[in-house]
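CORE FACILITY INTAKE
Project code: CF-77B
Contact: R.S. (postdoc)
Sample description: multi-component assembly, two entities in total
Requested service: structural model of the whole complex
Turnaround: standard
Below are the sequence entries exactly as provided by the requester. Do not edit them.
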Amino acid sequence: MSALALAAQLAGGFLLAPLLPGLVQHWKARLQGRRGPTPLQPYRELRRLWGKSAVDVEGAGVVYRLAPSLAAASTATAVLLVPVAAVAPRLGVGHDLLALLGLLALARFAVSAAAWETSNGFSLMGVSRDLMISVSVETTFVLSIAIAALVSHTTDLTAVVAGTAGTAVWSTPALALGAVAFALVAVAETGRQPIDNPDTHLELTMIHEGPLLEYAGRDLALLQWTAAARHWLVLVLAAQVFLPHTHSVWGQLAVLPFALVTLCGALALVETLTAKVRTLLAPRLLAVGALAALMGIVSWLVQST
Amino acid sequence: MSSALLLTALGVVALGTVGAAARPTFRLGIRTQAVGVALVGVAGAWILVAQTTIGSPFASALDVRFGVDGLSAFFLATLGLVAAPVLLFATRYLEPTRRGRAIAGLLGAFLLTLAEVLCARDPLTFLAGWELMTLLPAAMILVSRSDGAARETVFVYVALTHLAGAGTWIAVLLAAHAGAFGGDAALARGSGLQIGIALAALVGMGTKAGVMPLHSWLPRAHPIAPAPLSALMSGVMIKVAIYGLVRVLVDWLGVLPLGIGVLVLAVGALSAVGGVVYAIFQHDLKRLLAFHSIENIGIILLGLGACLVLRARGADTWAALALAAALLHTLNHAVFKALLFLGAGAFERSVGSLDLDKLGGLLRRMPWTGGAFLVGAMAIAGLPPLNGFASEWLTLQALLHVPAYGGIGDGLAGAVALAALAATAGLAVLCFVKVVGLVLLGPPRRAEVAAATEVPVAMRAASLLLAGACVVLGVAPGLLVGRLAALAPWPAHVATTVGLHLPGTGSLPTPALAAVLAVLTGAFALARGRRAAAPAPTWVCGQLVERPLLWTSAGFTKPLRLVLESVLRPQRDIAVRRSGGLVQEVSYSGRVPQLLDERLYLPAVRLSLAAAAQARRLQTGRLGTYVAYLIALVVVLLAGVKAGVIG
């Protein structure tokens, strides 16, 4: 069972991840009355990019060249860290939720530093907004983690998945409020509306796309895989921690694909129904999530004392 | 044995201090100091690991005593680890001029004073060292610079640390009077005396540590000091204030009421978030780093506050782990902040001004110093697998356990502190992306920067040593945590491992994480290959990136400034000069004012000056007036006696 969980984790995180943004794009197009690309479009793009040579920016150095690899490596480490079920084989890197935050920050740092190396104003504009928003994202993320950790008495993800399983934990509003907070985190981390618009071709409105402007070829392929893997990480967390799931590990593994597909549908629906908020108002939106999570913690405290 | 080593080491520092003051033995003297202080560190580490104590224990009597226990030993080890590279840096940074020799001599005296505070075992020695610790940096700043601005800054520094520093005297003398200097069960939990000592210590020692809102001296004094002194002040001196706080709050006062712990959490959260927010809007590298010291002191206090709350709640193991988190972050911050200040000193030596908008591209021109600076920046931003991440992770875990063990009030305080620490980490990443980008990356923004060359080997080696310490402490923090948790004066056992494995919660296998990150980065870089088309210019909609179009510090932080506008009240001025309907020139100036300075300190200063002006009217300078005062006094006293109020 542990081997199956490992297979699902590695295959899902490394191979199936590009399918998730593909699905969102596909359904979004359908919801908007367009035919749109197939869900496999991200794979085609990755194949195309992998066959092309990278282009170095004049005057760029080692930071620019290493950034895609470092961002991909820290996201890949995060994929190794996040289990798909309450049972996971020991890969040596642990399963700690707070470590996940650090790895995501490392990827962000690498890409942001590279933007400075290119001196591209549009990249820097995206980076400065991304970092500003990520302050609120991290705060909300930590508070929703805190709820999951309080409910399950640990930050070890396998135990958190087990601790948030079943129906008993939903008898208090804590986990539900945590889910509200985490939904906003998921939207922000995957770079989707109403926080960011992944379809924009206007450099002035780019957030996550901005720092990718200067990259081409294999560098860009690594960064696009990184973005897809972030979808995987966030949606797996949402499905196995903040959505109701069974105690049975088989059940968790069996339901996961459906949960992921449903969540992709939800992202597509939200992206169709809402417009992007003004960038400067995004922190306010995330603050709503943080306050919801704080309320969740208070409700847990009231119930447990 | 260890006491002999410690005494020898201090003797070597003293010898080096004398040597550094003379011209022929200047560099030899500083090197001797470095060796001596490294030996002090070794002695400290030895005592910490062997879990012994040397010398006499604490006593409330007013006679001179010295001794070292585990907590002192830990801070002595920190002192050695940080000061040895700093002095190595100083061998080349300082010149054997009169000024340089005076500073080198004072540096040695400063180090001895810091060691003296850590080893003091009676109130008198402690307070004497404490005051000297304030005055010696002031002397060094005055020796190194003689302009009016520096004098004014030193005045603010000395005035503020002494005014609020009275808290330290009150705390220490009250404790000594109650016979509790060194800890005694005489203080009942929740008694007025216990709370009074705790609050006085928080004010007095908090000022010295640079805790908001008593921080105002820190961002003024640190930037104008010579680089080795900045590194020691930020790296060690404010840590000695943390030592004082840990001594009083954790070691001596027994179990404090819950409210004190919550207060420490609140002050820590304010310092952490406030420090980093103001750091982001600084445009001078050293000033920015000084604000980051406030931030990190805040993070340390978050750990300390969690320790006090958990102790009051009876969760002893987690209280000890929270203390270990605070102490680990103390050590980590000492290492990477010294590294960053030395890097700033090296850059200043190579290119002159440290205006962030006028640097750029130094990683290529100064690869050793720049590389080490990059490691320090990533460490202070709390990125894995470096040391800042390890201690922030441990602090987050400690804060997470505050709601787990607490009631509603302190649990909520813990959750808010948790959120504050997360926000701080995010803001620190923003700030150091800015610093790394403006200082190390991109094109050079001045001719001097384009022509910058690497600093001498000794200065490079100092940066590299500290960068190495950042990596080692990041990969194997667990080796220390068990020892640090054992420093708590209550029984608590934490297993010693290489990574961080905590009882009953998540674990951070730091060596495995570091290895996996390194291997995967290498693998991806290999897979990416070296194939690249001819380099192309940056694409900015068909426009070339020219120097006037480069992004600035103010531009990069603008989104955050706009978001925080209602809190920070930034001011900006745009002047447009037109002539003949055409814009000839646009000048922009903006600043983010220090609200606490302007809303709290300035009115207080004005009020006291006005009061002094009123009081001066009494001082006419005429003899007759003073005789009249005397007569009036005598009459009042006599009237008092007559009415039976006096005597």
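Facility notes:
- Chain B touches chain A through 83 residues (CB under 8 Å).
- The first strand of chain B starts at residue 54 and ends at 55.
Invoice: internal transfer
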